[in-house]
Amino acid sequence: MSIRILAVSGSSRRGSLNQKLLDIAANGARDAGASVTSIRLRDFALPIYDGDLEADQGIPAEVRRLQAVFAEHDALLIATPEFNGGYTAALKNALDWVSRPQEDGTSGVALLAGKVAAMVSASPGQLGGLRSQLALRTVLDKLGVVVVPEAFTLGLAHQAFDGGIGLKDKAAEKAVINVGVALHRTAERLTVK
To answer: Which of 99, 126, 139, 151 is at 20 to 30 A from 109, Cα to Cα?
Structure first.
């Protein structure tokens, strides 16, 4: 059975540069033999996490749907845009909800802990989203996610794409592809079937 990778972007914007970069990395994982499912967080109507809402109304159905998607995958490929030096509220909110208790009462953190993840980011700034990756890594570490050292940040991203599905700089494109390959390779080694 092939490694199942969930590709998720912290950007909900149409034409997202981070989504485009994620797609390149996902193709690398696919070419390495992984089965990749790509989701958009905007396709899940998640309320902002609120402990009172959870206590009063329980876990929303959309959270259960997202938890089920996470449960079906062995690894995570994450594109994390940088908003004001951090990663997006949409991505943080999704992780917060996924970590809540599952329907059977087991910890939602179990849907993340022990999984392997890789990160890419694109930004019009020079650092390419590096700060968002650092901030996200702190949260992923706390949740028990194994983050591979292979990552990619694309600075001046608004000028980097070739008009199609690739990057103008083919060496950079190869490095993004290699993030997906490295995620697949590491997940294969660490995932017990």
So the answer is: 151
